[in-house]
Amino acid sequence: MESGENNSGLDDVHLWPMRYDLHSHSKASDGHYTPAELVALAKKKGVEVLALTDHDTSAGVAEAVATGKSIGMHVVAGIELSCLWHRNQIHIVGLSIDPASPELRDLEKSQAEKRDIRAREIGLRLEKHGFKDAYEKTKAMAAPGASITRGNYSRYLVSVGAGATEESCFSRYLGEGKPAYVEPNWPDMDTIVKTILAAGGIPVLAHPCRYGLKNKWILRLVKDFRSCGGEAIEVTGAVQGSSSEKFILTEIANKHELLCSCGSDFHHEKPSLDLGTDLSIPEAGKPVWKSPKFRLEC
Ligand code: AMP
Ligand code: MN
Ligand code: MN
Ligand code: MN
Q: Same structural domain for residues 103 and 244?
């Protein structure tokens, strides 16, 4: 697919209302599909612009772009970085990042080391509960060198019959205060936002209503994120708290002069969470693809 006169493809993007999904996962972290399979599935489901945003790694982006080029699908290079804010584990998506950025590469390397140390510790704790070789078996289900999250562990636990659903495995083993919970030591929000900016990307506060924060704290989070240099917040996702949520988030975005993003946070098929779900942004919001930094890789 050719995308307009310039390399960015912005002409096409601005001319037609496309179906965007700007938050998704592959086997490079805790998604169930390879980047190639994910891009093909997104196309089948009617997505026109897909951002691959794996946890703390951009390793799957090259494969996603190669597939996008061959089957005619717009792909955005992305990542979802983990940080700590007032001890809360907050996720910042970076859109249109340069995966070759030295700052981003350094950060990905240190996040990978932290994730591996934590994943081994989670594995040891699960061994004590009778899950032999939990770390090795969990790793074997993802791509070689993948960024292992608690999502990978929940999938492994379901596969060995430890729970009927991933959610139930969080309730029993992986959630905060449960036997296999290991506190992460992610960097602070400012470090993460600045690294995305250094990589030429657009920092996007992911799923603001999914951190279990009270409204007052969500507003503080958005304000702090903006002060760090954040540029957009996700206002629509496949998992909606309530039908008014996206309108409230759009108002908050406008108040803080932030752009609006949308993404399913797809890992694998679930009734409430699918690729191709309607993720339209309220008219009052300014979509993140209007940013001059927004770039399609193909
Ligand atoms: P981590 O970054 O290692 O703490 O893992 C976070 C990932 O675990 C998220 O991206 C989700 O994929 C998954 N996750 C977190 N909480 C739950 C839950 N309650 N049920 C199912 N998956 C979850
Ligand atoms: Mn995940
Ligand atoms: Mn997330
Ligand atoms: Mn995600």
A: yes
Query: What is the structure's pLDDT at 270?
Result: 83
CA-to-CA distance for 190 and 289, rounded, in angstroms? 23
Tell me how far the alpha carbon of residue 121 is from its chain's centroid. 23
Question: Residue 117: which CATH number?
Answer: 1.10.150
Nearest atom in ligand 1 to 119's CA: 3
pLDDT of residue 9: 53
The contacts of residue 257 (CB under 8 Å, 6+ apart) are: 226
Ligand 1 centroid – CA 143 distance (Å): 18
User: Which ligand approaches the C-alpha of residue 147 most closely?
Assistant: 1
Do 35 and 148 belong to one domain? Answer: no
Q: Is the CB of 277 under 6 A from ligand 1?
A: no
Owning domain of residue 128: 113-174
**Do 124 and 100 lie in a common domain?**
no
* Contact status, residue 259 vs residue 291, Cβ threshold 8 Å: yes
25-43 pLDDT, tens per residue? 999 999 999 999 999 999 9
Residue 10: per-residue pLDDT: 52
Sign of CA dihedral 134, 138, 144, 145: negative
- Please name the residue whose Cα sits nearest to atom 16 of ligand 1: 170
The number of domains in the chain is 2
Taking the complete model, does pTM exceed 0.85, yes or no? yes
Q: For 58-108, how does the pLDDT look when each residue is reduced to its tens digit (9 = 90+)?
A: 999 999 999 999 999 999 999 999 999 999 999 999 999 999 999 999 999
Q: Are residues 146 and 259 located together in one domain of the fold?
A: no
Q: 222 vs 128, 229, 249, CA distance in Å? A: 40, 11, 10
Substitution site in 23, 84, 150 for ligand 1 pocket (most atoms within 8 Å of beta carbon): 150
Q: Average pLDDT of 198-206?
A: 98
